[in-house]
Give the backbone structure.
Amino acid sequence: MKTNQDTVTRNLLQFCYTCEDAHLCTTEEMCKACWAENGLYEAEEAGAEETRELLQLYYA
């Protein structure tokens, strides 16, 4: 799964700001695992990236 840096930053601000254990997550992968464990993060469905690229090509 490819994650956009803006999405990670937004999620960090939204999900980690009030987390007491935020200091334990030292990598992006650890953050994503924590979000998923707590039901805060859902991986993109298969084909979502291809669809996004096609739409960008169509509207560009």
About this structure: Residues 5-16 form the longest helix (12 residues). Helices lie at 5-16, 28-37, 48-59. The mean pLDDT is 80.
